Amino acid sequence: MTTYNFAAGPAMLPVEVIAQIKADLPDYKGSGMSVMEISHRSPLYMDLYEETKADMLEIMGLDPEKYDVLFLQGGATQQFTLVPLNQARKFHRIAVVDSGHWAQRAAEDAGKVPGMSVDTVATAKDNNYTAVPKIPVEFTHDYDYLHITTNNTIMGTAYRDAAVPKLDLPLVADMSSNFLGEQYDFSKFDLIYAGAQKNLAPAGLTVVVFKKDWVHKNDDLAGLFDYATEAKKKSALNTPPVFQVYVAGLVLKWIKSKGGLKGIEALNQEKAKTLYDCLEASDLFASKVDPASRSLMNVPFVTGDKELDQEFVKAAAAHHLLNLKGHRLVGGMRASIYNAMPLAGVQALCDFIQEFEDQHK
Ligand code: PMP
């Protein structure tokens, strides 16, 4: 029986990518070394870095003359601090949209940067985070940027591209949980960051994509924390996570083989529809998320009975449907169905939901 991993991250990688890693592992491109052993100063890595960066920008439809990509460490969490440290230099004041837990963490950490003011300009608190709040386009103060979280991993809500306005203000997005999972007009964003461990690579890689003309060198920052310095050093000011960049490169090729983000989004739409349809048809299970705000990536659901939820998670695991326990903040179940989850995995989950329901009538 095939095992499907519904974890929110680290998450599944495409089976084709795992097979490629397995084939490449002992001898990377005839070097006689594993990719885990090659030097980050070698031409082998430099080629890999350039190709990965070029593929990423191509997939995102961004001009490499205007946008740059950093391959960093420290997770999305580190960017909660580095974005304001680098980019909130004029007004020392940023606007944030409170769409859920990770948006709040980003705001909280930004507020710890000395001299920084953080204003929540929209919140989903009133609807208990079951829908995303409208992104404001007019502001009563001067801000260095507006920060949003495009996909709320815990609550399972998201801003689709149409819900992201073009702003006069620079726009920063934490895209950790739907990075390259659906189409956006990425040119609306001035800086995007994402931890890789959901849709792109194993944990240990953080991607930052930014508009070059918005990022300048900050002499008061250590090089490792300064975007412009890292860009100049091709993300190798210190030893970069070579293996993770290599896997990201394979995943990007895999995305291209699926027709780029258009193809990937169509697959993800089909998967999400399959799962939401089966939850809607169920008398036992339900999704609390407002249909207009539904995430394509993370689908939380409940029975309404905590003990039954636990029983479901346990029984599902026995059926090789793993990691369906909801985040501790909300309980219930959560199925994360990122790019690498095949439709067959979602169908297997839906079949099991039906089976469990039949047994508990
Ligand atoms: N932002 C979002 C939207 C997330 O889902 C997560 C992790 N679940 C984070 C930030 C934190 O990411 P990391 O562990 O890479 O720091």
Automatic annotation (TrEMBL):
Q: Which GO terms describe its molecular function?
A: O-phospho-L-serine:2-oxoglutarate aminotransferase activity; pyridoxal phosphate binding
Spell out the InterPro entries in the cross-references: Aminotrans_V_dom, Aminotrans_V_PyrdxlP_BS, Pser_aminoTfrase, PyrdxlP-dep_Trfase, PyrdxlP-dep_Trfase_major, PyrdxlP-dep_Trfase_small
User: Entry's HAMAP family?
Assistant: SerC_aminotrans_5
What does the entry list as the binding residues for L-glutamate? 41
PANTHER family given in the database record: PHOSPHOSERINE AMINOTRANSFERASE
Family assignment from sequence similarity:
Belongs to the class-V pyridoxal-phosphate-dependent aminotransferase family. SerC subfamily.
Q: Pfam family of this protein, just one?
A: Aminotran_5
Q: Into which EC class is this enzyme placed?
A: transferase
Which residues are pyridoxal 5'-phosphate-binding? 76-77, 102, 153, 174, 197, 238-239
How does the cofactor bind to this protein, according to its record?
Answer: Binds 1 pyridoxal phosphate per subunit.
Per its database record, what is this protein's job? Catalyzes the reversible conversion of 3-phosphohydroxypyruvate to phosphoserine and of 3-hydroxy-2-oxo-4-phosphonooxybutanoate to phosphohydroxythreonine.
Principal localisation = cytoplasm
User: What Gene3D superfamilies does this protein map onto?
Assistant: Aspartate Aminotransferase, domain 1, Type I PLP-dependent aspartate aminotransferase-like (Major domain)
Protein's recorded name: Phosphoserine aminotransferase
> Its annotated pathway?
Amino-acid biosynthesis; L-serine biosynthesis; L-serine from 3-phospho-D-glycerate: step 2/3
Question: Which controlled-vocabulary keywords does the entry list?
Answer: Amino-acid biosynthesis, Aminotransferase, Cytoplasm, Pyridoxal phosphate, Serine biosynthesis, Transferase
Q: What is this enzyme's EC?
A: 2.6.1.52
Gene for this protein?
Answer: serC
Chain positions with N6-(pyridoxal phosphate)lysine modification = 198
